[in-house]
Amino acid sequence: MESRGRSVLLVILLVLMLATTWLIARPYRMDVVTETRTETIAFEKQRVASPELPVGTEVIVQAGKLGRKTTYVYFRERSFLGKVSSRIEVPAGDRPTERIEVAAAPEIVEYGTADEFTVDLNASAESGVDIGVIGPKGALLVKASGTIRYWKGGTCGPEGDATHDYTFTPIRPDVNVGALMLRVGSAGPYVPYVQLTLTNGMRTVTGTPGEHVRAVVNDAAGLYSDNTGVLRISVIVR
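^ that's the sequence the OP posted. Answer follows.
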């Protein structure tokens, strides 16, 4: 028993001596530690010219997608008796600085460059259709063709039906029912197609370059659903 007790005592003394030696020789530590952070990667926006789209129009062909990455920041920590006493950021050197977890996908937008094209206006479209923008010279040339059927049986072309005695109130009561009308911008008046200036077979819509032009059939709000047929509008941007 005495021999075993001496052995235990010797072990305890040895541990104490080693601990004392460590405290005397190295009371502090200097270590480089790594801190990780998660960051969002913004997606790029790319614009691609499309000769198949009219001037002034844009289409998003690919939605953008945010990415995600992990970044690494390094610090030199000084500790005394196991407690951190100072912490200073240090250069990464040869150590990695980031890792891509999810790659970002760009948003791709196609914009139109075509200055000659055709647009179809469905007679049942109460909101009409955007036929393009006023060109850099301040004009949009249009030529309409086709026949539509409105209400219970009346038919007409872009000029509308001058003989129809309607009992409802269309967009413009002073213009033939079923007539093609065009408006520059979002608040301007609708102008009958046949009243636009005719030059070399095409009629001219004028306005500020870049303004959109909308075409609509002259009918009453809520009564477009029984209309059929399409007016085809040839457009040249000028």
